């Protein structure tokens, strides 16, 4: 039996509140998406400011995954997909045992890296979980999809799990399940992320009801959401821009927040389609300031756009640019020591249409259009054209950098 390695970082536990690790996620069954393919979304919040995409060789399967920049061979990854079409992500849960701490978080990432390297589908993931020595020291909601159209959430604690089938109308009558930082089987007096859960649930519901649930919709409406349903605030309605206000706002329970470091939508395949068509649409860094790009495992290192992978400085070029723009948005002249609280909404979105988020979405719209044309051709041909894939990755990596220099005065 495999044994989880336990890491205790007492000082970090005391210094960092659970709200820093405030991920939001959803799984949408293929039965309610426009093209019949399942979608797996994770919006990652963490204290590790810089992420990138890495390619790994697991024990059985190669995979691409979001990892932090501080280690070329990390113990943990935070969402990813393998060459068998198996994809996994997680959110930490703060209302199931054991009481969450940094040890549990490390184990969550370890489990995901292990699963991507060893599991072809959801059933093998369950077998892997059951093979681990207990107690697991895990408190998490794991979400998985695979090439057999399976779509499950697993609420996992110290010694067991509860599975939620997103394809089952009894579990998900509208064809989707949302999770933030609490588990439905947990203690209702604990947990965090209830407001984010409410907002994400409403956005996914609207997308499903309007047959609009696509990766592009998810990034624009979920990953770049600035709405708090509890207090009735939606910054995109214009009431919080100049001249009505100064354009500055206080961050409180938005899905997009200072601690957001990546957002990923894995678009699965229909039964019978080549598993290599599984696409990991990836935002590395803060979604309001960063363009999404696709990743394909079958391309190996070339399947990752150059600006998402490690550069000479050990970071993702696009992730670093998005991070620097986020820092500008949170750079309050007076409240410098509280920059994680106040952000310049006018700089992100305004009536002139030249906010960071608006310009990023313009670039992204053209990117989705060109990549989706190629993807549709590859589906018809039954395989990804790797040469064309690399040309697209190189073209768009260069184009995005040029546009960031032009629009945002990047140096």
Report on this structure:
The protein has 411 residues and is α+β, with helices and mostly antiparallel strands. The protein is built from nine helices and 17 strands. A seven-stranded antiparallel beta sheet has the order 3-4-5-6-7-8-9, covered by helices on one side. A six-stranded antiparallel beta sheet has the order 10-1-2-14-15-16. Mean pLDDT is 92; it is low at 5-18.
Summarize the structure.
The protein has 411 residues and is α+β, with helices and mostly antiparallel strands.
Query: What's the total helix number?
Result: 9
Alpha carbon gap, first and last residue: 51 Å
Pick out the low-confidence regions.
Answer: 5-18
Order of helices and strands: HEEEEEEHHEEEEHHEEEEEEHEHHH
Structural class, please?
alpha+beta
| Cα-atom radius of gyration | 20 Å
Record field, number of beta strands: 17
> What form results from the Cα inertia axes?
globular
Strand order of the largest sheet: 3-4-5-6-7-8-9
- Taken as a percent bin, the fraction of beta residues is 15-25%
Helix content: 25-40%
Instruction: Give a quick account of the main beta sheet: strands, pairing sense, barrel closure.
Output: 7 strands, antiparallel
Round the mean pLDDT to the nearest integer and report it: 92
């Amino acid at each position: 039996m495999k044994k989880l390695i336990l890491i205790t970082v007492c000082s970090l536990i005391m210094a960092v509140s659970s709200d820093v690790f405030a991920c939001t996620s959803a799984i949408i069954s293929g039965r309610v998406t426009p093209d019949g393919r399942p979608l797996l979304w994770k919006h990652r919040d963490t204290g590790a400011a810089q992420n990138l995409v890495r390619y790994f060789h697991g024990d059985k399967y190669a995979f691409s995954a979001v990892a932090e920049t501080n280690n070329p061979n990390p113990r943990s990854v935070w969402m990813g997909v393998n060459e068998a079409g198996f994809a996994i992500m997680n959110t930490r849960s703060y209302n199931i045992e054991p009481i969450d701490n940094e040890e549990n978080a490390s184990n969550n990432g370890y489990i995901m890296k292990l699963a991507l390297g060893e599991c072809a589908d959801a059933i093998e993931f369950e077998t892997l979980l059951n093979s681990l020595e207990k107690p697991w020291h895990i408190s998490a909601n794991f979400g998985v999809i695979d090439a057999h159209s399976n779509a499950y959430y697993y609420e996992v604690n110290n010694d067991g799990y509860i599975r939620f089938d997103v394809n089952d109308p009894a579990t998900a009558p509208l064809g989707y399940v949302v999770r933030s930082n609490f588990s439905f089987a947990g203690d209702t007096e604990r947990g965090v992320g209830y407001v984010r859960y409410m907002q994400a649930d409403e956005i996914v519901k609207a997308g499903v009801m309007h047959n609009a649930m696509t990766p592009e919709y998810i990034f624009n409406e979920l990953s770049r959401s600035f709405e708090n349903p509890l207090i009735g605030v939606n910054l995109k309605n214009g009431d919080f821009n100049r001249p009505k206000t100064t354009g500055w706002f206080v961050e409180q329970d938005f899905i997009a927040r200072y601690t957001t470091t990546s957002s990923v939508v894995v678009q699965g395949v229909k039964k019978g389609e080549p598993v290599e068509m599984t696409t990991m649409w990836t935002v590395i860094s803060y979604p309001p300031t960063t363009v999404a790009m696709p990743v394909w495992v079958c391309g190996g290192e070339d399947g990752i756009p150059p600006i998402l992978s490690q550069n000479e400085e050990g970071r993702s070029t696009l992730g670093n640019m998005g991070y620097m723009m986020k820092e500008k948005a949170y750079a309050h002249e007076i409240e410098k020591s509280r920059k994680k609280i106040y952000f310049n909404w006018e700089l992100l979105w305004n009536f002139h249409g030249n906010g960071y988020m608006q310009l990023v979405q313009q670039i992204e719209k053209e990117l989705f259009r060109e990549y989706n044309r190629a993807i549709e051709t590859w589906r018809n041909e039954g395989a990804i054209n790797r040469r064309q894939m690399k040309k697209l990755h190189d073209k768009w990596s260069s184009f995005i950098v040029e546009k960031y220099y032009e629009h945002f005065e990047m140096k």
